């Protein structure tokens, strides 16, 4: 229950008007969005030419479905007895844009492999984008009176979302076995639910009988069509993942100029200096090229 500040009496807002099943639905939507988004991110890490496309698909799945849609649907559970709540649709739609942009920027900053500096930059991008998204969602609510946000609780919500997102990216980059994937999905769903309830707890409603009636649209008329469109939109990245060609998770790296395949300096201790073909990185490393490289004769030992 969230306290609502009134002129004379303190009222309460119910967060579970539609039942506790809405919380489970929030977790399920977050998990599905994260699951599809991770599959797209894996293909984006393996691909070179289509990496931006895969990252964009992951951003829509994770940011648009897993974060924005899940938290927007959860707002349906808020009600205040005897009061009318309306929502600014333009703010809600703008929050969707920031949610998708935050994940897209975060995945690009995180890169293909784990690096501490990249992780910090990715966390900053995710925190900024999700913070704006959450602020727009909370301030989109309108009543007969005024709505304010407790800055302290709002900061706590931002800390939660940055921590949860960073841990998910860390697990995705550092560990690639199935249990780590499951852990990332579960942590993500729990983090979205925690951010939502913390953000709602930061709301402070002040009613004024002399103020204008609440302006905006009823949330159900907006959230339900977006829910249907969001789930239908997942069919596109799911199909792309299913038809994508199989690629190895780790692609071989070309040796740096002036070094041998073993990592030591070339040309020293009797080893042959690298040729131009060995220095030039292959655009598309494959099994045939690797076998051909192994088949090259070894240099004769110096006498």
Description:
Keywords: Membrane, Transmembrane, Transmembrane helix. Pfam families: MHYT. This is MHYT domain-containing protein. The protein has helices spanning 21-46, 51-74, 89-110, 116-139, 151-174, 178-201, 220-233, 235-243, 276-279, 287-294; strands at residues 2-4, 11-13, 86-87, 141-142, 145-149, 203-207. The longest helix has 26 residues, at 21-46. It is mainly alpha-helical. The protein has ten helices and six strands; from the N terminus they run ββααβααββααβαααα. It starts with a strand and ends in a 9-residue tail after the last helix. The strands form three sheets. Strands 1-2 form a two-stranded antiparallel sheet. Strands 3-4 form a two-stranded antiparallel ribbon. It has a two-stranded antiparallel sheet with strand order 5-6.
Number of helices: 10
- Radius of gyration computed on alpha carbons: 25 Å
Q: In total, how many beta strands?
A: 6
Task: Give the SSE string.
Answer: EEHHEHHEEHHEHHHH
| Through-space gap between termini | 86 Å
How is the quaternary structure best described? single chain
Low-confidence stretches: 6-10, 250-285
Strand arrangement in the largest pleated sheet? 1-2
Helix fraction bin: 55-70%
Judging from the principal axes of the Cα atoms, what is the shape?
elongated
Strand content: 5-15%
Q: How confident overall, as mean pLDDT? A: 78
Report the biggest beta sheet as strand number plus sense, adding barrel if it closes. Answer: 2 strands, antiparallel
Structural class based on helices, strands and sheet pairing: mainly alpha
């Amino acid at each position: 229950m969230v306290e609502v500040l009134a002129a004379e009496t303190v009222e309460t807002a119910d967060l579970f008007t539609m039942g506790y099943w809405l919380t489970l639905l929030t977790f399920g939507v977050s998990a599905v969005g994260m699951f599809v988004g991770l599959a797209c991110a894996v293909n984006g890490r393996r691909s070179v030419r289509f990496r931006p496309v895969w990252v964009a698909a992951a951003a829509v799945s994770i940011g648009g479905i897993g974060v924005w849609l899940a938290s927007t649907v959860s707002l349906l559970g808020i009600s205040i007895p005897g009061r009318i709540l309306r929502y600014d649709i333009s703010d809600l739609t703008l929050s969707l844009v920031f949610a998708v942009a935050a994940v897209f920027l975060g995945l690009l900053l995180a890169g293909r492999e784990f690096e501490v500096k990249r992780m910090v930059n990715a966390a900053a991008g995710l925190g900024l984008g999700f913070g704006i998204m959450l602020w727009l969602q909370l301030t989109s609510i309108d009543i007969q009176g005024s709505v304010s946000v407790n800055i302290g609780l709002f900061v706590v919500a931002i800390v939660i979302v940055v921590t949860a997102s960073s841990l998910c990216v860390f697990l995705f980059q550092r560990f690639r076995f199935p249990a780590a994937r499951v852990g990332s999905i579960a942590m993500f769903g729990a983090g979205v639910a925690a951010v939502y309830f913390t953000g709602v707890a930061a709301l402070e409603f002040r009613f004024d009988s002399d103020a204008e009636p609440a302006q905006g649209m009823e949330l159900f008329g907006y959230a339900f069509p977006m829910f249907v469109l969001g789930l239908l939109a997942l069919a596109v990245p799911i199909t792309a993942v299913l038809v994508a060609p199989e690629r190895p998770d780790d692609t071989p790296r070309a040796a740096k100029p002036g070094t041998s395949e073993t990592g030591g300096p070339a040309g020293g201790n009797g080893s042959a200096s690298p040729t131009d073909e060995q220095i030039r990185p292959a655009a598309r490393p494959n099994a045939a090229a690797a076998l051909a490289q192994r088949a090259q004769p070894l240099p004769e030992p110096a006498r």
